[in-house]
């Protein structure tokens, strides 16, 4: 019996396993994860779940019936691999062989190595990626707590809004000039900052921190400007690190995730594809012809599902006997539409495309101080849209991503 091993037991791993079965693969499927939990939904950890039910049952994904026979090896991460000999070694010393491999190991939070208390939740220094992270953070959030969030991206701003709703005082510190500016652009980012401040969130921008204050427990942070902020809790939301160390030694490009072709097959440094070895989710760096041929990693919630549903049918075809079927499927361009949303206070942000690659932003509908749709253009081609409210309107722009602004104006006029 053929065996497909999936390294990573979060959303990308789950969708890959389900898609393998729906694609007709009848062999053995083993999913290996470093956490002890079955797959669960991570975005709510910085939103509603942090204010309410943080049990695994509240955020767990339902496993579809077609994947009921999948084996889940949980709590033992992969530590190394030999793709040539088709083996993966786990932290407990087990070695598992495979006929096909899907890498879905995702991300972990980046930590600051600075003077002060240890990078430990007991000391008041938190990250927010896992269920346990959220549970430990929630246990230290009391009304009146002073919470300093390092980073003003989407996670940082969501945490600020959530802890404020719990009665805490939130301050975001970031080296960026505005919150979420890379994704929103200057004009919209400034407006979102204004709305946050209206709810009481404070910002210290265009500066980092020099040290954490306190001995065994956090008491504050010292900024690069010299200012000291008192803190009972610090949340480090300064980006992520790709979990690709277990793939080292296989002649892969791991400079930013793992480089793949458009079929999501891992590529060697010389550009050759590893047959029957794929990457999905946050670690996959692949070209999307909808935008251009530049390989990019996309950390949006939709991507694990989209890439899992791309890689798994190709894997099933590659393990079959009909080589022509695989070639035909692999030749179809993979053009997933990145999509994300973010709830912050009474703001509902929703976006399609890749606004960060734009060179111009323009207001398409609404007004900056109300509901709106902002368009992001690169060389006069729409590459992204972001909305505050206007859910129905922004959804209508999804099919226009990749079109010149002139044709967009004709379509919407």
Write up this protein:
- With 413 residues, the protein is an alpha/beta fold.
- The chain has ten helices and 27 strands.
- It has three domains: 3-108 and 241-331, 3-Layer(bba) Sandwich (FAD/NAD(P)-binding domain); 111-238, FAD/NAD(P)-binding domain, CATH 3.50.50.60; 346-412, FAD/NAD-linked reductase, C-terminal dimerisation domain (Enolase-like, domain 1, 2-Layer Sandwich).
- It has helices at 11-22, 48-51, 56-59, 131-139, 154-165, 181-198, 302-318, 323-331, 391-397, 405-412; strands at 3-7, 28-33, 71-74, 78-82, 87-90, 95-97, 100-103, 107-109, 125-126, 146-150, 169-174, 202-205, 209-213, 220-223, 228-230, 233-236, 240-242, 258-259, 265-267, 273-279, 284-287, 295-297, 339-344, 347-353, 360-366, 372-378, 381-388.
- A six-stranded mixed sheet has the order 3-2-1-7-20-19, covered by helices on one side.
From the structure above, extract its key features:
FAD/NAD(P)-binding domain, alpha/beta, 5-stranded parallel sheet, 30% strand, Enolase-like, domain 1, 413 residues, 3 domains, globular
Can you lay out the helices and strands and say which pair or pack?
Blueprint: E1 3-7, H1 11-22, E2 28-33, H2 48-51, H3 56-59, E3 71-74, E4 78-82, E5 87-90, E6 95-97, E7 100-103, E8 107-109, E9 125-126, H4 131-139, E10 146-150, H5 154-165, E11 169-174, H6 181-198, E12 202-205, E13 209-213, E14 220-223, E15 228-230, E16 233-236, E17 240-242, E18 258-259, E19 265-267, E20 273-279, E21 284-287, E22 295-297, H7 302-318, H8 323-331, E23 339-344, E24 347-353, E25 360-366, E26 372-378, E27 381-388, H9 391-397, H10 405-412
Helix pairs in contact: 1-7, 7-8
